[in-house]
Write a structure and sequence with these properties.
Mean pLDDT: 81
Radius of gyration: 23 Å
Low-confidence stretches: none
Number of strands: 0
Structural class: mainly alpha
Order of helices and strands: HH
Largest sheet: none
Helix content: 25-40%
Shape: elongated
Length: 76
């Protein structure tokens, strides 16, 4: 196995020394955004859903029940 080269830390305190005039956007960024779906759950739910598999299983059971779930609106 090859050893990785050590990466030098770059001092970014003087950003004016970097020339971004010839840079370009990542051509694959749009494709990645279209295929990625990130959902953030609240920290209090992590004990019930410790990983993505638990979340997927719960969502599959809701979909399999065939009943649409309505969101409860908190009374003011």
């Amino acid at each position: 196995m090859k050893k990785l080269k050590k990466i030098e830390k770059v001092d970014t305190s003087d950003i004016s020394e970097f020339d971004f005039s010839k840079s370009w956007r990542n051509p694959y960024a749009k494709r990645l955004r279209e295929r990625t779906n990130i959902v953030i759950i609240e920290p209090t739910l992590t004990k019930y859903f410790p990983n993505s598999q638990a979340v997927n299983n719960a969502l599959r059971s809701v979909v399999a029940s065939g009943k649409p779930r309505r969101r409860r609106v908190a009374a003011a």
